[in-house]
Structure formats: structure tokens, C-alpha cells
Backbone:
């Protein structure tokens, strides 16, 4: 349908047989809304046709979103002038003009959100509407990329005070289970942004940037390592449901468990960590054999891809597994899965210890370690798991990787 592979894409066929492929996200969203009107029981996503003031506001907000997008591209995908590393080499010390322009535009968005009585851009509904979704997909990328390439955490306490309406809007999204289904994490974003937009340039606030980069990629010794901290300081997990409501309910009574719109920041930490581990274990157990074959691409005889190269650093859909290590990788994943599925902290600790002992007898430890690294680096959010569960899987994989690596040493 789209030879270049550009997404999203919608093929529209008219009654007279004419066909048109549409790749502009906003146009696709507006068409889908037209085809699902309120009178048929669907939620109102756009101002009414007769609401001239509402339509004018919608168009004005859409233009502001394009302005914000432009500032983001300037900030992330171009070398900084007047700040960042280049600015420091030229004797400067202040943030770049791109950071100032971006934050000024964020301020405009914050002020527009502050004009309504609720968290959304419009008051005609008690749910997010079309313009909220148009902003959401790019603002989510902005949060990740600004942290990773510029050391700019827009959800920090300082910026929450500077942009309170924006952060209230983000919190309102977080409280909706439907948002959890398509909310990505910063690692997944910074891996998939360059193939779509080009490479990001380091700059901004160096100390914070280096700290955030280590946190996002799991190289800080905390964010992807056991024992995990309850929350992630850069990517808050519990301002809404961190897992699907059905999973939270299955985890047992924990205050208002499994209720949409609830904050889980004060939940029982032990029970919540168990639920997150268990979800990761359930997903791994449900497809374990195929996951083992996928991970075996990371072995010395795997990932041979003579047919095609990809812009995405971690993408190799045609790669073959190293079949010689699949049984050993499968054994390692079963041990990891057993630890994830334990319920009490004591049982979990005992299972981790059993895993470590059993891994010492595994054949081809170095090759299995490479396979687990390959898998860990390709755990995608939300494709595979929500972040609260994905970090558990990554951390347990790292626990096994460390044991196998030490054996090889």
C-alpha cells in the first residue's frame, strides 16, 4: 500500500471505486471520527459543526501543535547553537536558543490547557478528544527525547511547577487504562525515534543528560537491575494503573485495585512488585519456546542477515537463530520465568538463588549470555509489556546475564 513503509497509512475507497492512500495522522484520525458519529453511540471527538468558536479553537490548537513539533525538531535533530557542547566550546554556559524556544512553546501549550476547567483541551467532554490525541503522540516522544539528548525532564518537580496544566494533562492520561495500551517507555522511544526523524544531538544540561541516558538504557545499575526501586524517578509508574486492570485485580486486594482513574503511588509496594513480576512471567511463559528461538539470534551463529539492512539499530526481522544454543537459551528462560512467577518475597529470593545455581551448569554460557542480552535490548513497550512489567523482565534477564558473564570470565 505504501512502498516506503511509511506508517500510519489508510486506504480509502469511494463508492465510485476511486482509491486514495492517506498517510497524514491527523487526517486519518479526523476521517475515522467522521465515520463513527456521536449519534451512533460513539464519543464526541470534535467540536460540533455549528460550534464556530470551538472549531476555531481546534484549528488554533492544531497550529500550535505544529509549532511545538517544529521547535522539538530544531532542539533534538540539529546541533545546538549558543548552548550545549558547541556553545561551551565557544565560551557559553547558558542553555541554547532552541531550548529556550522549545520551553517557551511548551508554556503556550500549558496556558491553553489552563483555560479549561478540566485537564483536557476542551470542556465539551469529560474525556480526551481529537486534539488531545494529536498532541499526545508527539509529547510522549518529546518527554523521552528531551531527557535522553538534552537532560531536560519535563515531568520533574521543577517543571511540574512551571507547567502545571501540562503535567495535570499527562497525569490524566496516565490514569486511563486505554492510554496504558499504547504508552511507550523512554528506551523504546529513543531507539525508534532516529529511524523516523534522524539522529538526535547531545546537548543541553550535560550532567542531567548523562544521568538520564544511563537510567533510560539500564546502565545506571538501578533501572534494569535487581533489586529494582519501587518507582522510576524519570518515568513515574504509578500515577495511574501501571498494569491492565484485569492484572491488578488478579493480584489481589490493594486498596482501589483495578479501578480506572486511581493513583497507585500509595499502593502496597510488595504486592505491586509481585503483580509486575507475575505479568512479565505470564507473558514469557505463554510464548516461551518462540522467545527462546528469537533470543538465539544473538548467538554467534545467529543474526545472519544478507538480504536487507534497516535504519533501526535493533531491527533485523530476517535474522536466523543460532540453533545450537536454542535448548540452553530455553532452559535459561524457564529459570528466569520461574523466578518471575513466585509470589512472596522469600519465595522469589529463593527462586533467584536456584536460578543462579542452575545457570552455572549450563552449556555455552557465553553464547547464552549474548542471546539474553539480545532479548533484553529488544523488550519493547507497550508491544511486549507495559513498563512496570517490562523493567522486571529486563532486570531478571540482567540477573541471569551477570551470572553467565561471570562464568565466562
Residues:
Amino acid at each position: 500500500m505504501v512502498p516506503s513503509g511509511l506508517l500510519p497509512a489508510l486506504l480509502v475507497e469511494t463508492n465510485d471505486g476511486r482509491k486514495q492512500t492517506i498517510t497524514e495522522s491527523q487526517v486519518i484520525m479526523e476521517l475515522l471520527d467522521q465515520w463513527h458519529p456521536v449519534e451512533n453511540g460513539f464519543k464526541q471527538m470534535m467540536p460540533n459543526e455549528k460550534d464556530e468558536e470551538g472549531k476555531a479553537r481546534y484549528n488554533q490548537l492544531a497550529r500550535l501543535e505544529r509549532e511545538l513539533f517544529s521547535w522539538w525538531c530544531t532542539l533534538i535533530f540539529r546541533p545546538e547553537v549558543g548552548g550545549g557542547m558547541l556553545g561551551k566550546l565557544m565560551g557559553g554556559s547558558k542553555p541554547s536558543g532552541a531550548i529556550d524556544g522549545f520551553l517557551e512553546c511548551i508554556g503556550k501549550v500549558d496556558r491553553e490547557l489552563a483555560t479549561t476547567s478540566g485537564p483536557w483541551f476542551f470542556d465539551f467532554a469529560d474525556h480526551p478528544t481529537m486534539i488531545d490525541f494529536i498532541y499526545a503522540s508527539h509529547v510522549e516522544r518529546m518527554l523521552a527525547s528531551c531527557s535522553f539528548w538534552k537532560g531536560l525532564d519535563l515531568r520533574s518537580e521543577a517543571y511540574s511547577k512551571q507547567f502545571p496544566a501540562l503535567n495535570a494533562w499527562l497525569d490524566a492520561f496516565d490514569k486511563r487504562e486505554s492510554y496504558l495500551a499504547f504508552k511507550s517507555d523512554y528506551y523504546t522511544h529513543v531507539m525508534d525515534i532516529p529511524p523516523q526523524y534522524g539522529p538526535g544531538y547531545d546537548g543541553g544540561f550535560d550532567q542531567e543528560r548523562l544521568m538520564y541516558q544511563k537510567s533510560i538504557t539500564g546502565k545506571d545499575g538501578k533501572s534494569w537491575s535487581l533489586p529494582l526501586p519501587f518507582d522510576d524517578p524519570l518515568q513515574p509508574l504509578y500515577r495511574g494503573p501501571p498494569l491492565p486492570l484485569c492484572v491488578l485485580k488478579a493480584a489481589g486486594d490493594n486498596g482501589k485495585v483495578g479501578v480506572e482513574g486511581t493513583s497507585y503511588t500509595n499502593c502496597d509496594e510488595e504486592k505491586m512488585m509481585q503483580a509486575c513480576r507475575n505479568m512479565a512471567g505470564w507473558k514469557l511463559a505463554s510464548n516461551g519456546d518462540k522467545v527462546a528461538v528469537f533470543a538465539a539470534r544473538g548467538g554467534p551463529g545467529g543474526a545472519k542477515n544478507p538480504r536487507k539492512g534497516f535504519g533501526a539499530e535493533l531491527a533485523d526481522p530476517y535474522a536466523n537463530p543460532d540453533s545450537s544454543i536454542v535448548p540452553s537459551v530455553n532452559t535459561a528462560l524457564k529459570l528466569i520465568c520461574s523466578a518471575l512467577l513466585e509470589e512472596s518475597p522469600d519465595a522469589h529470593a529463593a527462586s533467584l538463588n536456584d536460578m543462579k545455581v542452575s545457570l552455572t551448569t549450563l552449556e555455552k554460557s557465553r553464547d547464552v549470555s549474548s542471546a539474553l542480552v539480545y532479548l533484553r535490548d529488544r523488550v519493547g513497550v507497550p508491544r511486549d509489556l507495559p513498563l512496570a512489567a517490562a523493567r522486571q523482565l529486563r532486570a531478571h534477564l540482567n540477573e541471569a546475564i551477570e551470572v553467565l558473564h561471570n562464568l565466562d570470565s
Q: What stands out?
A: The two ends are 50 Å apart (CA to CA). The first strand starts at residue 10 and ends at 13. Residues 84-92 have pLDDT under 50 and may be disordered.
